[in-house]
Every structure is written in structure tokens, then in C-alpha cells.
Amino acid sequence: MQLIRYRLSSTQTVVGITEDGKLVGYIPAELHTLLGLRSEELRTRLEQAAQGQVAAFSAAEVLAPIDGDTEVWAAGVTYKRSMDARREESETPDIYSKVYAADRPELFFKAVARRVSGQEQPIAVRADSTWDVPEPELALVINAHGEIVGYTVGNDVSSRSIEGENPLYLPQAKVYAGSCALGPAITPAWEITDPYSLTMYMTIERNGETCWTGQTSVGNLHRRLDELVEYLYREDDFPGGAILCTGTALVPEHPFTLEGGDTVNITIDQIGTLRNLVVRGKAAYKTGRSNGAEKNE
Ligand code: DO4
Ligand code: MG
Fold first, then answer.
1. Closest C-alpha residue for ligand 1 atom 1
2. Which residue's alpha carbon is at the smallest distance from atom 6 of ligand 1?
3. Which of 86, 235, 113 is nearest to 173 (CA)?
4. CB-count burial class (<10 Å; 0-12, 13-18, 19+) for 14
5. From start to end of the chain, where are the E strands?
6. Where in the chain is the domain with CATH 3.90.850.10?
7. Distance from residue 181's CA to the centre of ligand 1 (Å)
């Protein structure tokens, strides 16, 4: 079973339930309201709704799996590869080793729902950045009660030149128009026996050819998923739930930089493939978003 958000009509978005990619039911609700339910209640609700009646929908109507007041957060330096890459790019490398080894993880705010790109929507590199990368990440879907209820694919697109210049520029390196993509579907947590055994792949296409490819396992994560959630919810409330990107382990080697016109494909076993075209700068991003249907409204 997987969950998708899709447009049922010009005025209604619903949460669809799929089996092997085929729609088997839907709930006429917004996703953030379902994230108010406890995991067991959500499971019952989804199983009841998966009755096999199929409403028509097309891939073009699939929206980013986030709405309402659900927030996107991200964890950083949770894999050794990320620590090493940050140490290379930074003039203050020690902070990355310290946070990698510390009890408290690095957590940062990434996006509100309206900022998130869905499947086949543009993502962006900043026009004022010279070194940019996609960051493929396992994203946890967490309900209002702090339970992990699902997993989706996340892309924490980032500027390495801006973060490398000064770590206090992190919010500008990480949060800007087109910096976050999620989707296309959510796999319920109860469908995945061991998230640490998942393999993640990324390919970047340029001019019709693969210009970068790599793979890793969530098993290389230096922290436990529950521990990241515990820190996120420790002194905060998320009535509409939260999506937490859990950090990257796939960092293209220097001097690779993402360019406008590239396409990024991120696949996680049992979850799916998130595919986005890269544009450079805010104006191109806005044009790209307005050319397609709004994917999260
Ligand atoms: O410290 C910067 C952020 C690191 C990050 O986003 C990651 O490791 O994925
Ligand atoms: Mg990241």
C-alpha cells in the first residue's frame, strides 16, 4: 500500500491509496488531518478505505505529499560522507565533526507545504550560488503524536558555496525557492520491516546522458530514526505532523555542480522514484511552477 495526494476535481484534493501503482480507494480528506490520527487509527482508516473502488486519476494530477500546516524539517551530518564533504568545503571544518559525534543532532527547518515541489516539478539552484548539489534523503512522515507513520523520498537541494563560505549562512544555503522536493508517494511505516536496510540511488542526467550516479544504504546512518524524531518533537508541537529529511550520504565529488537543465532522479527501494528538472534562479522556478498544476495546493 502507498498513499498519494491527487486532484480529484478543480476544487478537491484527496488522499489516494494505491496497491502496485493502482488506485484502490481514496479518503476525501487533506493529508495533514490524517496526520492528526495515531498510527493504529490511521492504519484502520486506510485499510477501510482501500476497498478496491477505483476513481479515475492521472499521473499529472499527483501532488506533492504534503499540505496544510505540515512542516518539512531536515537533519544534517548524519552520515560520514556528509561530514567529510562539509569538512572539505568549509573554512570551519571542526563544527561538522563535532555535530556528527554529538548527542544532539543538527536539525533545521526546511519548508512549508506551499514551497515543496512534487514529482516532475522544477527544483532550483540559486542564481547567486556557484556550487550546488541535490541531497537525496529518506524522509520520515511523522504524525502529530511523534510516531513515524510513513516514508517518502526527499531532496534537500543545497548550495555548497554559500554554506562553505560561512556556516551561519546555512538558512540561505538550504531554504529558498525550489530547494525542497518530496514524493511521489508515501509508503506506510508498517509496510517496511527494516528501514535501515533500504537502498537509495541517485542519478543526475545532463544533455540526455547520466553525468553522476551513486547509491548508498540507510544502514550507513550514524543515528537512529527514532532519535531524530525525539529531538524534533522534544520541545515543539506539530499539530499537522512533520516530514523529516534524515540527511544525505550521496554527495557528488568536487567540482561537480548541479546545473539548470539537469534532471535528478532519486530512488529508494519500496518507496519510489522522485524525478525533478533543475532550473537556475527564482524567475525560472516560478515560471516552471506556474506552467504545471500547483502540486501542493
Ligand atoms: O550542515 C549542513 C547540512 C547537512 C545536510 O543537509 C545533510 O547532511 O544532509
Ligand atoms: Mg541534507
1. 76
2. 76
3. 86
4. buried
5. 2-9, 12-19, 22-27, 62-63, 71-76, 106-112, 123-125, 132-133, 136-142, 148-156, 158-159, 180-188, 199-206, 209-217, 242-245, 263-268, 272-280
6. 64-291
7. 15
Residue range 24-62, pLDDT digits in tens: 999 999 999 999 999 999 999 999 999 876 666 777 689
The DSSP symbol for 102 reads: S
List, in sequence order, the alpha helices (H) in the chain: 31-34, 39-49, 80-89, 94-101, 160-165, 170-174, 225-234, 282-291
* Close Cβ partners of 103 (under 8 Å, ≥ 6 residues apart): none
Count of residues in the chain:
297
**pTM for the whole thing?**
0.97
Domain covering 64-291 in this structure, CATH number? 3.90.850.10
pLDDT in tens, 163-204: 999 999 999 999 999 999 999 999 999 999 999 999 999 999
